[in-house]
Amino acid sequence: MEQWQGPTAAGEPARDGGERSGSAGEALELEKELQQGAKKPFTEVIRANIGDAQAMGQKPITFLRQVSALCMFPDLLKDPNFPEDAKEKARRLLAACGGHSIGAYSVSPGIELIRQDVAHFIERRDGGIPSRAENIFLSTGASDAIVTILKLLVSGEGRSRTGVMIPIPQYPLYSAALAELNAVQINYYLDEDKCWALDIGELRRALKDARQHCQPRALCIINPGNPTGQVQSRQHIEDVIRFAWEEQLFLLADEVYQDNVYAEGSQFHSFKKVLFEMGPKYSGSVELASFHSISKGFMGECGFRGGYMEVINMDPLVQQQLSKLISVRLCPPVTGQVLLDVVVNQPQPGDPSYQQFCQEKQAVLSSLAQKAQLTEETFNRAPGIRCNPVQGAMYAFPRVHLPPQAVQEAQALGQAPDMFFCLKLLEETGICVVPGSGFGQKEGTFHFRMTILPPLEKLKVVLQKMSQFHAKFTQEYSQLQLLGNSQKTAEKQGQ
Amino acid sequence: MEQWQGPTAAGEPARDGGERSGSAGEALELEKELQQGAKKPFTEVIRANIGDAQAMGQKPITFLRQVSALCMFPDLLKDPNFPEDAKEKARRLLAACGGHSIGAYSVSPGIELIRQDVAHFIERRDGGIPSRAENIFLSTGASDAIVTILKLLVSGEGRSRTGVMIPIPQYPLYSAALAELNAVQINYYLDEDKCWALDIGELRRALKDARQHCQPRALCIINPGNPTGQVQSRQHIEDVIRFAWEEQLFLLADEVYQDNVYAEGSQFHSFKKVLFEMGPKYSGSVELASFHSISKGFMGECGFRGGYMEVINMDPLVQQQLSKLISVRLCPPVTGQVLLDVVVNQPQPGDPSYQQFCQEKQAVLSSLAQKAQLTEETFNRAPGIRCNPVQGAMYAFPRVHLPPQAVQEAQALGQAPDMFFCLKLLEETGICVVPGSGFGQKEGTFHFRMTILPPLEKLKVVLQKMSQFHAKFTQEYSQLQLLGNSQKTAEKQGQ
């Protein structure tokens, strides 16, 4: 195993980008201290560091849990309080389980019926472009599937090591998995000045540089973006596909936020759909794996660890290896598979649960849209903070100006300057966000990632507090700077 | 990624030992053909190939599912049909979840409360020897934890590659994980003539040989044994610990069958307990990771993918790396964590569910004990089959005599002879078992692994059919041999 750098090593993200370490570890400590009655300038720790909707109070969608509870404890099938369509779905799913129980293993790629349902879901989503169950692999959350595909693609030593292109800023699963697999991480930078758009020129530059020292083989795209919240335009996706075709790169499309699109004029386009609409030249040859999850969207069922990937144009022998690879861990959690099935096979008009389901789903998504806008607007009113529109996903990734004196003090402590800022923020306000250095960013720029998940009223307060804190932080360190300067002047004059 | 050999490559087990491929793939095909109305010499395929109790009709333990259903759909907390102790457990667990929901991520090592409950469970099991929550890591089934620990231990290239000692026959997760990690698999053979006992002399031999070409660093023990069903004596465990101490090997104790001990005079001894009873010389220095799972025992909840490991005497810096390593996949399924909690924290005398819980648990375990004995006895009555006592776990691993003519025919087909036998068995009887070559066995010996999980009456029939099939198979191939011999004689005479 390779040794990893800690979260404070310059430029090196923690394995989890600090979601779970650094400021998050500190947050846990603070919570314990509060519980033990310690006096703090705040009464609760607000975890805006991780995309965990239900931890922030989002209620589970009733229908998803009803079907799951019926599968969990089939005696409930006799309970008149459960709606008939939930029972019907549960019966159908149980009939597809070994021994009619979710306690049996499924086959390694997941329950056949659910893979079919996923394929039908993809077909509907993509306007009828065919999808086949044999190309669907259910997974233990999207992370599991992403790591599996990377494992499959990566090989070699020295100059023949596999290179994988990832966006910067990125979701740190990628850097962590690549380090673990001894692959080369090839950074391509998203364009902050253009709403974190993908630039083909930048892809070319990154690829050309990388070819000097490794074998680039794959290109990862996160759309909608994490941590950056942009939604790629159809044109950009076409460009990426053309680029992948020209350079014979395997495409990994991380599309777990496909339901989370808020901005007017933004729309989710799946890589699969765009690929097929570009005609057989591309759709017959570009290798693609796309990923989805039940942890995000309107469901936010992170704890279930459910997801799937679809592979397109994979060499049949490689796909056989993929099947072997996933068989080691036996099967993804069946509870997650079952819940995924309800997500891809939702109540239809006329079903007893249809109305309630739609209302709950819509309430979650429109609340997120409202919070996305509020977040952007509030940050952009604050001097020294600049925030791109949160077009999708669940995060804002604003850029913050940090006074030179603060940067120096952080460096003297061996901390990344934005980690220094985030820790101070946490200590003074109880608000936990992730420093941009955990995701990668252009040299000399500073950011943090914050989820838009706190309930609206709480989010308003959080955003106010953060803006005020940044103003105070900036003022204090600028005064220090002035003080330092005047001291220097005084010393000079005294000489 | 390394290329793996297929299941039929001589001596090389499939990644899943054929549980899921080879004969299991064939079984799936046969099932489909039967469903489509094809005529076969049997009416159903019986999957005795995989340790999946509920797939074989074992009913889930009511209390486990009640608590899980309450956590899944907390509205049920108002339902008078659920017992009060189940509700109390569910409330306690929900209070420990982010946002009081099993849909939130847990921290990566698992919910703190459940880790504490696991530690208390281990203390009770081991007669009071202390266990600490910080050394407990919840996992996605035991396989996940085993692969994680191997990943942590393995490094190097060429002669400095890490070697890991595993029993032969073994559970093929080990060979698959070691191949994937580019580690050296060091085989030590269990002694079939002594009920698959572990022999220290054999451990020494294997280690000495391995030191010529790699760096042995760890020793895996499966107790009770899979696929071999033996339960190691306390004396043997002491010997192993002493050996590990002398040779500075990290011990991996796969104890997922700790509740599955049937034979009179056999008893489960945890490595942890024996280690601590051997005094501070050993308990203060031997590094140990032990594994448990909710997939086996009396619960058989394979689909939930729950389990834990406890690490002992791990270097604090290594344990930090372990924490980082597990953070990549975010967290084990919370549904599995919750169910695990009920397993380690069972109803107590006086609780409303106590009696029913004990009855159900006892019914499963005594039925398994009965089936273990039946299996051994029936096989040992069949000429050409010899079966060690099934002291524990869920499998018989009988040795079968295969006529030389059958061995030759298999080899001509490029099949392992026991794979050839198992495929014929499947085609003629619908019974699916795993060839011994999937687990490793002494050169020139042939076995198969069969679960004892089918319901008693069905198991009786299965065992009869298998004995009859083996007799017929032996007779047919012996006649072929005679025929071949007499043809040769006739040819010679005709010359």
UniProtKB/TrEMBL annotation, chains A, B:
InterPro entries with a match to the protein in the record: ALAT1/2-like, Aminotransferase_I/II_large, PyrdxlP-dep_Trfase, PyrdxlP-dep_Trfase_major, PyrdxlP-dep_Trfase_small
Enzyme type, top EC level: transferase
Record's subcellular location: Cytoplasm
Catalytic activity field: L-alanine + 2-oxoglutarate = pyruvate + L-glutamate
Superkingdom of the source species: Eukaryota
Listed GO CC annotations: cytoplasm
Subunit organization: Homodimer.
Protein name per the record: Alanine aminotransferase 1
Gene source species: Podarcis lilfordi (Lilford's wall lizard)
